[in-house]
Amino acid sequence: DQQVKQNSPSLSVQEGRISILNCDYTNSMFDYFLWYKKYPAEGPTFLISISSIKDKNEDGRFTVFLNKSAKHLSLHIVPSQPGDSAVYFCAASVTDSNYQLIWGAGTKLIIKP
Amino acid sequence: EAGVAQSPRYKIIEKRQSVAFWCNPISGHATLYWYQQILGQGPKLLIQFQNNGVVDDSQLPKDRFSAERLKGVDSTLKIQPAKLEDSAVYLCASSLRMTSGGGEQFFGPGTRLTVL
């Protein structure tokens, strides 16, 4: 049973435009969500997070939106740059769960010049 | 600040052989995680340590996998004997503390295991 789903295996976006990566979850107990970015042959690196008490968190070009009623979150990258080409993972956790992360399968983002 | 170190980076073995992976977390990080990432999937937690104690190993196949974290620093993950389905990238991560809301995990580069 996949509790965190990233339904788009890949996404291609023109450089300078907006990239929108989506993530859905089924467990209503999740209260903290994170996005990680992964380059080939490297481990994932933390990008941005959001607590369930918020509906938006922004950090430079990256913004994460959370829609609790729809159990949906999205990552917006504006403007997209070639260095953003990577695999993006959505992860979720429940507070007081030993900080265990449940991960989606990832979306490969390709930024076209 | 040095990141999470892992070795080896790549390993190819025959099925039924044994293999061990090593991880050195970021200095001062009390929590250490081992993940298995199969191609096309997200990381799956195998075991989580807090200092040198096991917090959760519910998804560790204990008939063949074992892990230890002596002295609360370095950790080793062992597979004995390996099966074809163990082919994956094994990721080690560490975090300063064991709480969400600020304890994001820092990952090593991983060990890519191929079982033939």
A few lines on this structure:
Chain A is an all-beta fold and 113 residues long. Chain A has strands at 4-5, 10-14, 19-25, 32-38, 45-51, 56-59, 62-67, 72-77, 86-93, 102-103, 107-112.
Describe the 3D structure.
Chain A is built from no helices and eleven strands. Chain A has strands spanning 4-5, 10-14, 19-25, 32-38, 45-51, 56-59, 62-67, 72-77, 86-93, 102-103, 107-112. In chain A, strands 2, 4, 5, 9, 10 and 11 form a six-stranded mixed sheet that branches. In chain A, strands 1-3-8-7-6 form a five-stranded antiparallel sheet, with no helix packed on it. With 116 residues, chain B is mainly β. Chain B has no helices and eleven strands. Chain B has strands at residues 5-7, 10-13, 19-24, 31-37, 44-50, 53-56, 65-68, 75-79, 88-95, 106-107, 111-115. Chain B is globular, with a radius of gyration of 13 Å. Chain A binds chain B through residues 4, 9, 31-32, 34, 41-46, 49, 51, 89, 91, 93-95, 97-101, 103-106, and chain B through 4, 31, 40-45, 48, 50, 55-56, 91, 93, 95, 98-101, 103-110.
Q: Give the beta-strand count of chain B.
A: 11
**Structural class determined from secondary elements of chain B:** mainly beta
Pair with the most extensive interface? A-B, 27 and 27 residues
Contiguous runs where pLDDT drops below 50 for at least 5 residues of chain B? none
Terminal CA distance of chain B: 37 Å
Cα distance spanning the termini of chain A: 38 Å
Question: How large, in whole angstroms, is the Cα Rg of chain A?
Answer: 13 Å
The helix/strand series of chain A, from N terminus to C terminus, equals EEEEEEEEEEE
* Poorly predicted sequence stretches spanning 5 or more consecutive residues of chain A: none
Instruction: Quote the beta fraction of chain B.
Output: over 45%
Roughly what fraction of the amino acids of chain A lie in strands?
over 45%
Mean pLDDT of chain B: 92
Average pLDDT confidence of chain A is 94
The helicity of chain B comes to under 10%
**Largest sheet report of chain A:** 6 strands, mixed
| Overall number of strands of chain A | 11
